[in-house]
Design brief:
0% helix, four-stranded antiparallel beta sheet, mainly beta, seven-stranded mixed beta sheet
Length: 116
């Protein structure tokens, strides 16, 4: 199973990007999908997550600006990012948890750069 993330790029502050992540291969019972990011010189941090019951959660710094969604038929997760700020710059990673047997999958990361 591989997670392929896409949609990153360079955008000016106030702009928007939509990240996508799709799983290829045999992956079942995905109960958790999330996005994380890692800024230069910092640790990876959790950004947003969505469960198989469509419960969503966001880190405080992106609430009201980012929206996470999922397409179960495609084993895909998305992150719509609006009103981007320079502090949103980083490599964004998608993450999926397969329930049974448990496994934690990570995507390869996609670079998001927000210029001021």
């Amino acid at each position: 199973v591989q997670l392929q993330a896409s949609g990153g790029g360079l955008v000016q502050a106030g702009g928007s990007l939509k990240l996508s992540c799709a799983a290829s291969g045999s992956i079942y019972d995905i109960n958790y999908m999330g996005w994380y990011r890692q800024a230069p010189g910092k640790q990876r941090e959790w950004v947003a997550s969505i469960t198989n019951g469509d419960n969503t959660n966001y880190v405080d710094s992106v609430k009201g600006r980012f929206t996470i969604s999922r397409d179960n038929a495609k084993n895909a997760v998305y992150l719509q990012m609006n009103s981007l700020k320079p502090e949103d710059t980083g490599v964004y990673y998608c993450n999926m948890h397969q329930l049974v047997p448990y496994y934690n999958y990570w995507g390869q990361g996609t670079q998001v750069t927000v210029s001021s």
